[in-house]
Amino acid sequence: MDFHGAWQVPLRPGMPREPDAWQRALRRAPFLVLARRGGETLFGKDAGHLDFRASLLVTDDHVTLGTVVRIHHRGGRLHRAALRRLHPFAARGVLRRAHREVALSAPTAGERWRTHHP
């Protein structure tokens, strides 16, 4: 996948790098988890008019959300045309909301220090 249709946010110090924490933050998304490998989780949904996939990639310093769609017929093209301009804003909003939720649930610097310095 290239990063043309992807959005990325930086991970702040202390934020979890485990994909499960990010998957929990995206729990409101109506998509099934199709696969997991390393730091990437693949979500998706197949419909008669199109198939949708979203990749959530967690690295050491960023979280990247990428999406792709496969259109099956004219109904899929109409659906994509209707949402084409809205989709980038919605995807970035989903990623920002997940980033905020994960950041707020991360332990504070003091809590992390106490864990490593009993």
Mean pLDDT: 81
In total, the number of strands is 5
End-to-end CA span: 44 Å
Q: If you compute it from the alpha carbons, what radius of gyration comes out, rounded to the nearest whole angstrom?
A: 16 Å
Helix content, binned percent: 25-40%
Global outline? elongated
Strand order of the largest sheet: 1-5-4-3-2
- What's the total helix number? 4
Question: Low-confidence spans: pLDDT under 50, at least 5 residues?
Answer: none
Strand content: 25-35%
Q: Structural class per helix/strand content?
A: alpha+beta
List the helices and strands in order.
EHEEEEHHH
The main pleated sheet reads as: 5 strands, antiparallel
Task: Outline the structure in words.
- The radius of gyration is 16 Å and the shape is elongated.
- It has a five-stranded antiparallel sheet with strand order 1-5-4-3-2.
- Helix content is 37%, strand content 31%.
- It is α+β, with helices and mostly antiparallel strands and 118 residues long.
Question: Brief overview, please?
Answer:
The protein is α+β, with helices and mostly antiparallel strands and 118 residues long.
What is the fold's blueprint, element by element?
Blueprint lengths: L5 E5 L8 H7 L6 E6 L2 E7 L3 E9 L3 E10 L2 H10 L3 H19 L3 H8 L2
Antiparallel strand pairs: 1-5, 2-3, 3-4, 4-5
Task: For this entry, give a set of tags.
118 residues; alpha+beta; 5 strands
